[in-house]
UniProtKB/TrEMBL annotation:
Protein name: 4-hydroxy-tetrahydrodipicolinate reductase
Binding site for (S)-2,3,4,5-tetrahydrodipicolinate: H148, G157, T158
Database matches in Pfam families: DapB_C, DapB_N
Membrane-crossing segments per the record: none
Assembly and binders: Homotetramer.
Amino acid sequence: MKIALVGYGKMGHMLESTALSLGDEVVATIDVFAPDASVKVSAGDGAAVARAVKESGAEGVIEFTHPSSVMENIRALVPLGLPLVVGTTGWTDCEKEVAELAAKTGGTVMHSANFSIGVNLFYKIVEEASRLVSNFDEYDSAVWEMHHNQKADSPSGTALDIARRVMAGNPRKTSMVTDAFHSRPSPEQLHVSSTRCGHVPGTHTVFFDSAADTIELTHTARSRQGFASGAVHALENLKRMLDSGELSSGALYSMSDVFPGMF
Ligand SMILES: NC(=O)c1ccc[n+]([C@@H]2O[C@H](COP(=O)([O-])OP(=O)(O)OC[C@H]3O[C@@H](n4cnc5c(N)ncnc54)[C@H](O)[C@@H]3O)[C@@H](O)[C@H]2O)c1
């Protein structure tokens, strides 16, 4: 299919080579800074992003930019009515607004904070582990993540999704704390902490800790390849399922919708 890439940074470049290797065509690479992008737009000019996508003849769009730009881009792109896959993180507070915009304009958005197949398997493993461990009061739990020092948001969207899985499996953990503690944590609080360093593409660990031992579950991304192939497959599936009527336009979808039965 013909794909427009909004954001031509580390992920944009990886998405381009992945899409080409899967037989898709990249008809536009749109960015505010990248010198090798096919279209340059000014920061904050969502209308120019939408115009560039429309003029490219794209059949679908993948957006990986920056937490400060993503909502402007979504607001401009959704009314085009093209299947839109968003990988940029840091906008979970706005999901209701995006779902309403999609319903109002008939546009379709699919989002995941992490497109890696391994991470989506990890979510399931974590929820099941948390359910098992929650049978034993002596175990506490926590989530930790580490990413490269260029990442703009923390904790990562993936860490928040992992924390939701821990809480879904353990009814004793009812609130998430993403800041530092300045007093002793209470047992119902789940601590989600972050480290930023060097070039790490993404490491997430869940700890289950008792006086006797620690169980650690870790997912380590080796490169951005897994995110890129997940996002391109998500867009291909979304378009196919919209064309066949399996999914309806005018909605905000997630991994479980475009990879049914898998996650
Ligand atoms: N969902 C996932 O699986 C996943 C995986 C990796 C990264 N991410 C997220 O994707 C985003 C991008 O990551 P990256 O590593 O490619 O970052 P990056 O900084 O390498 O690239 C982002 C690019 O977006 C461009 N940009 C910023 N505002 C723009 C706008 N309004 N219009 C067009 N381009 C714009 C920047 O100039 C830059 O080239 C981040 O939010 C990151 O957390 C998500």
